[in-house]
Design a protein that fits this description.
The chain is built from 17 helices and 15 strands. By secondary structure, it is an alpha/beta fold. Helix 10 packs across helix 13. GO terms for molecular function: kinase activity.
């Protein structure tokens, strides 16, 4: 297809999924030929985005962050190198899986994420893409590891209960029974280490309901996990030197603190590779191929602000489009950056719902029709002259 428009938005959190945003933008463009490629950066909405690009949704029952069963989905696609599974931590272990308004900062577990990985591998996945974001837990990936056969033991040889607080009692790790035979890529743009003032507990714990006292407890648990792992042999895939697993070094790596330390757990227990979320997921949906012959790319997310400019989905889309010389505009719920900053990020213009409807409540409730109005404006300003 040539002369088409590529529509590649992320979700509008709390309002529209990425596929819904793309559908409303396409409707507003009228008869313009389009290719809809909803995107995500590894956080909430990643499974929806890749399913819209041709992956198959798989659902199964797993353990939610508070221990109750939840129905969660992941996505699969068969490729020449083997089956790929895209797993979104938030599906099984996200804050949205807790009762409305509820939190469980000390006991929330990532176990369900591990159960999703196990389900995918047992059904043929050779590579797992693990998107991190929106987690309810700060357990360093302990629950995920336990679901995959790693034993986390106290001084009495008993398996630890769920949650980050329990990690303070960790005495030994036995990874001999871990599920193997697959590779893991972590898709995340979070650069926090596991520990310290910029770590998983200090930065993200309060967002999950942790009090200052809880943060101290969680920090101690994560530190204990890293220390015991540093002296444990046989953790497949972790960086090794002279036979000793250097888990304390892994704890300081960028991304180890992602999703309450699940990044650390993936690195140490699964031998994962961390890749920039949006860039990797654009490769996964073959984004570059759809840019050939395109007239325009329309990207976006709920709020275009300073966080966007630090490498979130719209900036990743713009960077990819720039390599093909295709101009980019964005749609959003609200905009908090200026034209010059947008242009430096490769985005020609941004169109916000609040530009045409100042009532934020109505923007959320009527986001679809308002997006269609913005799309008509984009067509008039960027397509009729090209």
């Amino acid at each position: 297809m040539t002369g088409h428009v590529v529509i590649a938005p992320d979700k509008f959190r709390g309002s529209l999924t990425a596929p819904e945003v793309a559908a409303h933008v396409a409707a507003g463009l009228g008869g313009v030929p389009v290719v809809s490629l909803p995107v995500a950066d590894g956080g909430d909405g990643t499974v929806d985005a890749v399913v819209a690009s041709g992956f198959t949704r798989v659902e199964t029952e797993v353990t939610g962050p508070d221990g109750t069963p939840v129905r969660a989905a992941y996505a699969v696609r068969d490729e020449p190198g083997g089956r790929v599974a895209v797993i979104e931590l938030a599906e099984a272990s996200g804050l949205r899986r807790l009762p409305r308004g509820g939190t469980a900062p000390l006991t929330a577990t990532s176990r369900g994420t591990g159960e999703l990985i196990a389900h995918a591998v047992r059904h043929g996945a050779a590579r797992v893409v693990l998107g991190l974001g929106g987690s309810a837990c700060t357990d360093g990936g302990a629950g995920m590891a336990q679901a995959l056969g790693v034993r986390l033991l106290d001084a009495g040889g008993n398996e630890l209960p769920p949650g980050g607080a329990a990690l303070r009692d960790l005495h030994a790790i036995d990874a001999s029974g871990r599920l193997r035979g697959f590779e893991v890529v972590v898709a995340s743009d979070v650069d926090n280490p596991l520990l310290g003032p910029y770590g998983a507990a200090a930065v993200y714990g309060p967002q999950k309901g942790a009090s200052p006292g809880d943060v101290a407890v969680l920090e101690a648990g994560l530190a204990r996990l890293a220390a015991v792992a540093a002296h444990t042999h046989g953790l497949a895939g972790a960086a090794e030197h002279d036979g000793v697993v250097r888990a304390m070094g892994v704890a300081g790596r960028e991304g180890a603190g992602a999703a309450g330390g699940v990044g650390f757990g993936a690195l140490v227990f699964l031998g994962a590779e961390i890749r920039p979320g949006i860039g990797y997921l654009l490769d996964l949906v073959d984004f570059d191929r759809h840019l050939a012959g395109a007239r325009l790319v329309i990207t976006g997310e709920g709020a275009i602000d300073e966080q966007t400019l630090r490498g979130k989905a719209p900036v990743g889309v713009a960077a990819a489009a720039a390599g093909h010389g295709v101009p980019v505009v964005a749609v959003c719920g609200r905009r908090a950056v200026g034209d010059d900053e947008l242009k430096k990020a490769g985005i020609e213009a941004a169109y916000a719902l609040t530009d045409i409807e100042p009532d934020v409540g109505r923007c959320v409730a009527e986001a679809g029709p308002l997006l269609e109005r913005l799309a008509r404006r984009i067509a008039a300003e960027h397509l009729t002259r090209r």
